[in-house]
Amino acid sequence: DPEGRRIAVNNSDRTSPRVAILELETGRVLADWRSQVGTSALCWSADGQLLAVGSHELDSRVYVWNVPRGVLASVLQGHFNNVFRVQFAHSGYLLATSSWDGTTRLWDAASGEPLALAPGTLHGSFAPDDRRLAFAVGGKVGAWDVAAAPECLTLHPGMPGNRSETPHVLREILQTADISPDGRLVATADEDGVGLW
What we know:
0% helix, mainly beta, 197 residues, globular, single chain, four-stranded antiparallel beta sheet
């Protein structure tokens, strides 16, 4: 994990999937999940809250676990083959995944929302400022620019900074909404969370 106190391991045997989180100093098992887990690549979010686990070709999903709560946060579906690389940005919950289907996808890992799809496979991690990703496609290597709009985000329920414990669903009736003084942003709030758009 980012603090270097825990390690996540998984079993690559598809007949008995398992993800365990161990305390490095003692080896004590802190979490042990045997269903809704992948058998491929693993990656922690920068704050240590989320763990993304890729799957082999028979499944081809990415399972994102909320580690402190021990619950599945989201299941990312869209790839058509083994997800061999998962990589979180250095801040927030932006996740890049690459598959043997020859594509890389960007997701909001906390909500499970797909954000972008590009041909090619991810190589390495996000640049330190999270604005570039190294890729390979058709025998060529390059870098994608990652457009960031930090003002457009959702404060995810159950995550740091938001006290709600239930999944965010955009309601037909919001409790409140307001526009920023410069007219660029709309803030919404309901019983499930706060959104900036």
